[in-house]
């Protein structure tokens, strides 16, 4: 009797469970169908060949723009762009043998006089020299020389070269920039052949200071002007910081902090110089000019200017 009752209860429990199963399956199926219908596969990435064709179709033919676009696309740098980058990095590197390490542009006297005593005062001094002094003027001379040489306008070169030499405020600064200009042209011509350079140099009819030399050589090699000017000003500031670091002295980290702080000043000065005419030339860094003059009679010296 007990067995019959247990079997009856099991049958009743099974009967209650079985009718519910179809409803559960149906509900699950209905809920799953909309999900299947609305799910999409992610779009396939464009093929490399398609990306290259679209990039080439919209790419500028300017060397500077081509270099920037190539870097943005992740492509290899084109041969012409690679040559441009290589020459700028080489010619404007502190390792290029123009003797820049032996000149301080008057910074040595400023350190002895107490005007420059640490990283902050060095930064302020160089910012004034760059934006309001010889940095801006040299940038203007480079830009105008570059444009005249690029046009093969030899007749326009003597007035620019003469005015650039006249803007140098002291005898030692004249020695510094003329010696660097002469060395730059001689070494660049010896290592990189260039048509028209001898004619352009002789057409200047006098001493060629450093920014004029860089403008001549860069233009005749077909380099773009904006990166040339930015590279020149960066090299100028780097040499000044190197002199200050040895004279104060400064550590390597503080030297790089000064260079980083002057980055926007370099960019702004290059932008002004690119847009400036020769009538916009002017200098207001009187203390720096006096420093370069006083250096001539300094009792002990490490640098030639």
**CATH class descriptor of one domain:** Mainly Alpha
Helix content: 55-70%
Number of helices: 16
Largest sheet features: none
Could you please say which CATH topology of one domain applies here? Urease accessory protein UreF
- How does the helix and strand content classify structurally? mainly alpha
Distance linking N and C termini: 122 Å
Computed over alpha carbons, the radius of gyration is 35 Å
CATH homologous superfamily caption of one domain: Urease accessory protein UreF
Q: Count the beta strands.
A: 0
| Strand percent estimate | under 5%
Order of helices and strands: HHHHHHHHHHHHHHHH
Give a short synopsis of this structure.
69% of the residues lie in helices and 0% in strands.
């Amino acid at each position: 009797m007990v067995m019959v009752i247990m079997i009856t209860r099991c049958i009743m429990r099974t009967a209650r469970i079985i009718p519910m199963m179809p409803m559960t399956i149906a509900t699950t199926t209905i809920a799953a169908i909309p999900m299947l219908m609305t799910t999409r596969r992610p779009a396939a990435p464009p093929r490399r060949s398609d990306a290259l064709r679209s990039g080439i179709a919209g790419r500028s033919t300017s060397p500077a723009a081509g270099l920037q676009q190539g870097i943005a696309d992740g492509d290899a740098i084109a041969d012409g762009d690679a040559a441009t980058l290589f020459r700028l990095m080489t010619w404007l590197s502190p390792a290029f043998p123009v003797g820049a390490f032996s000149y301080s542009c008057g910074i040595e006297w400023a350190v002895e006089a107490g005007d420059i005593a640490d990283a902050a005062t060095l930064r302020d001094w160089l910012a004034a020299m760059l934006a309001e002094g010889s940095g801006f003027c040299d940038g203007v001379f480079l830009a105008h020389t570059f444009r005249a040489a690029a046009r093969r306008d030899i007749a326009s070169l003597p007035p620019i070269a003469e005015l650039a030499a006249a803007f140098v405020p002291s005898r030692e600064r004249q020695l510094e920039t003329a010696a660097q200009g002469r060395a730059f042209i001689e070494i660049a011509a010896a290592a990189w052949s260039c048509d028209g350079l001898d004619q352009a140099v002789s057409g200047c009819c006098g001493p060629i200071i450093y920014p004029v030399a860089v403008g001549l050589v860069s233009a005749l090699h077909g380099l773009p002007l904006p990166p040339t000017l930015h590279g020149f000003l960066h090299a100028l500031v780097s040499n000044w910081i190197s002199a200050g670091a040895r004279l104060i002295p400064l550590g390597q980290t503080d030297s790089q902090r000064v260079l980083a702080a002057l980055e926007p000043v370099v960019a702004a000065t290059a932008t002004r110089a690119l847009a400036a005419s020769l009538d916009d030339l002017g200098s207001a860094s009187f203390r720096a000019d006096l420093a370069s003059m006083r250096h001539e009679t300094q009792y002990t010296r490490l640098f030639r200017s």
